[in-house]
Write a structure and sequence with these properties.
Glycosyltransferase, Cellobiose_2_epim, 9% strand, mainly alpha, 3-stranded antiparallel sheet, EC 5.1.3.11, cellobiose epimerase activity, isomerase
Length: 388
């Protein structure tokens, strides 16, 4: 599995994303339709750009290929010049193809991913300016995008609260969400890893407390997803992909904190999450996207399969007696190879396939949410873990 996935990274994912580099206006093209036509004048999502920044920076650290660092620098220069709001601070949601502010929403989720990308770029390049920017975004989130009980979601350009439709789904308008908190944790973890900043460490402890006492449902052995301000769950939703992703990301955070007692305590929760996804959602080959009110949505979304591999490999490494997790990761890779990777020249992964493996032709190959973050990260995780 390791050699196959490394080959796919080197000869599939990396060349594909290098091919979307925009040398005229900067950054990377924001849209490729199912027909593989690139819209060079489509908006450029700042989440897309920060995730690409993270990907190429992290790939450089693993593969030590200077062309990857060049791609990361290209993403960094675009983010620094166009995605950061020099007037009010923070990161825009999106800019036009030529870098003009387009959607000026300031979302906590977006700031967190920029911290993630900048921290990885500092680690790869040693550019202290990138670390300084990451720290300033951390300070901004803590000052303007949270209250005494945790993290809030969406704001306008001047940081006045607005509706959270960008990170709300399934008929909700969430004041807080599991997804945003998960990725604030992820961004802060990367920042703490490269900086050792004690303030960030303290924030991570607070986030883990919120996850374990407010987000996690011990009776159902899953995370709740959307919440009101008081952490009341707004919908009966089981996001299989987010749970298996969260299981290993939370473990990563406790590993980097280096607190053995905390790791043992939190590890019981993450093992329950991984075990429950394996039992409830994994069908022996793949993982559907979610279940709402006990009704399963059967789409096999690209990122869910990728994070399934990460989550099951992590669970296996921590519990090597449970070889079913390793077999699940191998089965997911076989499924991805057969159904999710688009075999057409010049393409990458389908957005999703149905339960019969038929790809969704109404979904693009690239758009602001579809990038090399999940599948590229899966490849890097498999390579670095080297579990065969």
């Amino acid at each position: 599995m390791v050699s196959e996935i490394k080959e796919h990274l080197l000869n599939g994912i990396i060349p594909f994303w290098k091919g979307l580099r925009d040398d005229e206006f900067g950054g990377y093209y924001g849209y490729m339709g199912y027909d593989l036509a690139v819209d060079k004048k489509y908006e450029k999502g700042c989440i897309l750009n920060s995730r690409i920044l993270w990907f190429f920076s992290s790939a450089y650290k693993v593969l030590v290929d200077k062309t990857l660092l060049s791609e990361a620098t290209h993403a960094y220069e675009f983010l620094k010049k166009y995605c950061i709001d020099d007037e009010y601070g923070g990161v825009f949601w999106s800019v036009s193809y030529d870098g003009k502010p387009l959607d000026t929403t300031k979302h906590t989720y977006n700031q967190a991913f920029t911290i993630y990308g900048l921290s990885a770029y500092f680690d790869a390049s040693g550019d202290w300016e990138a670390l300084k920017m990451a720290v300033s975004l951390y300070e901004l989130i803590e000052k303007k995008m949270r209250d005494e009980r945790g993290y809030l979601e969406a704001f306008d350009r001047e940081f006045k609260p607005v509706s959270n439709e960008k990170l709300s789904e399934n008929g909700t308008d969430a004041v807080r969400s599991m997804n945003t908190l998960l990725h604030v944790m992820e961004g802060y973890t990367e920042l703490y890893r490269v900086s050792g900043d004690g303030r960030v460490r303290k924030s991570l402890y607070e986030i883990l407390k919120i996850v374990s006492t407010k987000i996690y449902n011990p009776k159902l052995r899953r995370q709740e997803v959307f919440f009101d301000k008081d952490y009341n769950s707004l919908v009966d939703l089981y996001s299989y992909g987010h749970d298996i992703e969260a299981a290993w990301l939370i473990n990563r955070t406790t590993d980097i904190l280096g607190d053995g007692d905390l790791s043992a305590k939190i590890g019981r929760m993450t093992e329950e999450m991984a075990s429950e996804v394996y039992k409830v959602a994994f069908d022996g080959k793949s993982i559907p996207v979610e279940g709402q009110n006990s009704v399963v949505k059967e789409d096999r979304v690209w990122w869910v399969q990728a994070e399934g591999i990460n989550g099951f490999l992590d669970a296996y490494e921590r519990h090597p007696e449970k070889k079913e997790y390793l077999e699940a990761a191998r089965a997911l890779w076989d499924y991805i190879k057969e159904f999710v990777i688009d075999k057409r020249p010049g393409s990458e992964w389908f957005w999703y396939v149905d339960k019969n493996g038929v790809p969704a032709k109404d979904k693009p190959i690239v758009e602001p949410w579809k990038c090399p973050y999940h599948n590229g990260r899966m490849c890097l995780e498999v390579i670095t873990r080297n579990v065969t």
